[in-house]
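Recall that a protein's primary structure is simply its ordered list of amino acids. Everything else, from secondary elements to tertiary packing, is in principle encoded there. The following example makes that idea concrete.
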Amino acid sequence: MGEIIKIADMHCDTIVKCKRKGFDLFENSMQVDLKRMKEVVSVQDFAIWLEKEYYPVAYKETCECIDFYYSQLEKNKDFICHVNTYDEILNARESGEIASILSIEGGEAIEGSIEKLKYFYDKGVRLMTLTWNYKNEIGGGAGFQDLGLTEFGKEVLKTMESLGMIVDVSHLSDKGFYDVLSIASKPFIASHSNSRAICDCKRNLTDDQIREINNIGGVIGINLYRDFVSLNKECGIDDVMKHIDHIINVGSDEVLGFGCDYDGIDDTPDGLFDVSSVYKIVDEIEKRYGRETAEKIAWRNFDRIYSDIL
């Protein structure tokens, strides 16, 4: 083993949870904070996710969460910086800072308005998960598998691509996935989803979906929510590796990354309780596949998406 390989993580819910609990991003009792991140993470996507009670005021609440995000980054500017472009990611790496990407998890936030989508882009949002598990103006989530993208949803996708926003299909219905596939002109991602063949739940991806994401040059972020890793009572790093092995076999080592979902999940595989433990997965990947593949999965594959789209 050489020097530790830091990861680019495509999904955590830490900012909203900090806001709800009155915690600080530098050090807290949750699954992610800067004190632990700085040893293992080089790029972190912070998602703004809203509980259903906020849906009637989704735009307003998302704006408030974004303001909180920027206040936390300003408070901790010696360790982390917001990035809008790939060049800014490279600059952050060079200076030893964590590069922070802002995303929205669930298109409820734009309240059926392309202008609000553009406003969020101007506010620094560079990725949007189209739905959560429910349905919204964009389309159906994982709880509505036969509901695809609406006409408005198709307009959202095209607008995101034209702006330079990453399209995220995690939580999207199966029909919605294939609607995105038929329309998208750029690679898209599933920021925090696993293999349905290994763990049979609607939030995970079928083998065909994995192949299609691989074929278009997209990336899948491995999710560490226990229920998406294994349906068995016992669950540990070996179960996570089953997903990684399977996705590599079905797709390739070019399609995998990390989307740990920390602070959006309560239950993790044994030994992977918080961000400080992710290196264990990277080490296991390196043992099985070598350092080149470990680096691809840890950060290079997502770097390709950032460089193509941002």
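The chain has twelve helices and nine strands. The chain has a mean pLDDT of 97.
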